[in-house]
Amino acid sequence: MSDQNVRNAGFTSSGIAGGSLASSMMSREAKASGGGVRSGGPTSTLQEMGARGSTHSSGFTSSGISGGSYASHMMSREARSHGGGTPRGGTTSTVQSISMGGKGGRR
Predict the structure, then answer these.
(1) Which of 1, 44, 89, 91 makes an SS bond possible with 105, Cβ 3.0 to 4.6 Å?
(2) What's the structural domain count of the chain?
(3) Angstrom distance (rounded) from CA 40 to CA 60
(4) Bridge-partner residues for 64, per DSSP?
(5) What is the pTM assigned to this prediction?
(6) Annotated region Disordered: where (predicted)?
(7) Does 48 fall in a domain?
(8) Can you count the helices (H) and strands (E) in the chain?
(9) Bridge-partner residues for 61, per DSSP?
(10) How confident is the model over 13-24, as a mean pLDDT?
(11) Dist. CA 55–CA 52, nearest whole Å
(12) What is the span of the domain harbouring residue 76?
């Protein structure tokens, strides 16, 4: 189900769908960073998954993050860089939220 959730959010094999949650995320992230979307951030990570058509190989699943996966390593790195927790709206929490059908911490 998480692959479909990523596509439903607008992250597709042909790019980010106009008028979608993905395009809104991309716009907010670009504005916040002064005009670009950073590599490794939520938008680029989700678009990479949408282009591949798979979230499971990364470890982001509808049941949560798979132990020992790329996703778990990403979560560990992000937690260490933030003093022990993954921040709301950070890459890991946003990608996991979208893959589970959520809105990625969108307010």
Answers:
(1) 89
(2) 1
(3) 15
(4) 61
(5) 0.77
(6) 1-107
(7) yes
(8) 5, 4
(9) 64
(10) 94
(11) 8
(12) 1-100
